[in-house]
Amino acid sequence: MSDSEDDFRGHLLSGSDASHSDSDSDAETVEQKPATFADLGLNDILLQACAQVGWTKPTPIQVESIPSALKGRDIIGLAKTGSGKTGAFALPILSALLKKPVPLFALILAPTRELAFQIHENVEALGAPIGVRSVAIVGGVDMMSQSVSLAKKPHVVVATPGRLVDHLENTKGFSLRTTGFLVLDEADRLLNSEFEEEVNKIIKVISKERQTLLFSATMTDKVNKLQRAALRDPVKVEVATKFSTADKLLQSYLFIPAKYKEVYLTYLINEFAGHASIIFVNRQHSAQTLALMLRALGFPAIPLHGGLSQPKRLGALNRFKSGTRNILIATDVAARGLDIPSVDLVINYDLPQNSKDYVHRVGRTARAGRSGKSITFVTQYDVEAFQRIEQLLGKQMDLYSGCEEAQVLLLLERVMEAQRVAALVRSPVSPCLPRWGTLPDAR
C-alpha cells in the first residue's frame, strides 16, 4: 500500500494548490471574548435556566448576537456547526416572552425533523422555569394531532417548512399573522431546492412586524438574497471562517481498495470499541446493510436515514445519545445541526457528494471544546473528490497510521460471513428494510 499511497498523495499535489481564501465575506469576524451569561443582559430567571441545563458560559456566537437580539435587532449569524446557535436564538425569544407572554409568539424553522425536535427540547428545557409551551411540527407525524397541539396556542412553534405550509393551507384557524419572532436555523439548507418554495410562502404570510434571526454555516447567494428581502438592517456576526473545523479535531484519511471497505471499517470499529462513533454513508441501503453486518459481528450498530419512519429515526438518535448503541450509521440527514455531545470518532465510509458536507459531518465530533477524530476512506475512485475537500479546508490531511493491510485482511473471512448473514435477514417484502431482532442484540 505504501507505493499506492505515495502515488495518491503525489496526484493530489500535482493538482491545484490546497489553499483557501475567504475575502468575499462582508460580515464582521469576531474573536472570542471572556463573558458570562449575566454579561449578555439576561435576567436572573434565564440565568438559572442556563445553569440548570449545564450551560456554564456563552459561546462566541452567543456573546456577539444575544445583546443585539435583546435590543430587538435582526441578526444574521455565520457560525460553524456545534457553536451554540440554538442558545443564540432561544434565549432572546424566552427573554421577550417574559415581557410579552403571548401565544404563537415565535416560529423557528429547521431543515430536518431531528433538528426540529432537538430545538424543541432545548426550548422546553430552557423555558421550563417560566412555563413556556413549545410544539414541534414536522412530517412523518399525524397532522390531526398536530392541529390539536396548534389549537392550544403554544408560545413557540418549531417546524420543518413543508409540514408548516401544510398546516397553513389546511388547518382551520392557524395563522402566523401575530407571530413576532422568526428564526431561520441552518438557513443555507433551508434555502436549497427542496425547501426554498415553502420558506418563501411562510415569509409572505408571517407578520411583517417581527424580529428575524437568521443563522447559517455559510453565506450562500440564496441566503444573502433572503437576508436582504426579509431582514431589516441586521447585525452581521461571523465567528468562524467559512469552512473551518474544530481546533481539537484530528483529521486523517485512509487510502484503501474499494473492495475492502467493509473489512477496513470492521477493523477500525474493533480498534475503537467502546467509543461513540458515527459512520457516514451516502445511501440508505448502505446504512441498513452495514448496520446488519456489524451487528452480525457483535457490534452495537444502528442505522439512521430518511427512509426510516419518524419514530424509528428518533429512537435511533435516543439510543445513540443514551449509549445503548454506540455506533450510528447515518446518511447526511444527521450531519447538520444535531447536538450529540460526546462523539469520539467520525468515519466517512463514503465521501460526501458535496464537499461542503464534509465539514458538517466531521463537526459531529470535537464539539464544545472536546477532542475528536475523523477518518475518511479514500478509494481509487475518490481521488478528485478528496482533493476538492482538502482545497476547501485549505490544508492536507494526514495519513491514518493505525492500519496495516496484512492485519486488516485477517478479518476478511469473518466479514464476508457477516455479510452473508446480513443478506439472509433482509425482509422479503422490502430488500432495503431488513427485519431487526434476528441478529444478536449486541450492547
Offer a quick outline of the entry.
By secondary structure, the chain is α/β, with parallel strands linked by helices.
Describe the structure.
The structure is a single chain. The longest helix is centred in the N-terminal third of the chain and has 15 residues, at about 85-100. The protein is globular. It has about 450 residues and is of the alpha/beta class. The chain has 17 helices and 15 strands. It folds into two domains: about 1-10 and about 245-425, 3-Layer(aba) Sandwich (Rossmann fold), CATH 3.40.50.300; about 20-240, Rossmann fold (3-Layer(aba) Sandwich), CATH 3.40.50. The strands form two sheets. Strands 1-8-2-7-6-3-5-4 form an eight-stranded parallel β-sheet, sandwiched between helices. A seven-stranded parallel β-sheet has the order 11-12-10-13-14-9-15, with helices on both faces. Belongs to the DEAD box helicase family. DDX47/RRP3 subfamily. This is RNA helicase.
What is the residue-averaged pLDDT? 85
Shape: globular
Tell me what portion of residues adopts beta-strand conformation: 5-15%
Low-confidence stretches: 11-34, 427-443
Radius of gyration: 23 Å
The major beta sheet can be summarized as: 8 strands, parallel
Fill in the CATH topology of the largest domain: Rossmann fold
* Helical/strand content category: alpha/beta
**Helical amount:** 40-55%
CATH H-level homologous superfamily name of the largest domain: P-loop containing nucleotide triphosphate hydrolases
| Reported CATH architecture of the largest domain | 3-Layer(aba) Sandwich
> How are the strands of the largest sheet arranged?
1-8-2-7-6-3-5-4
Distance separating the two termini: 34 Å
Question: How many domain modules?
Answer: 2
Number of beta strands: 15
Supply the number of helical segments: 17
CATH class of the largest domain equals Alpha Beta
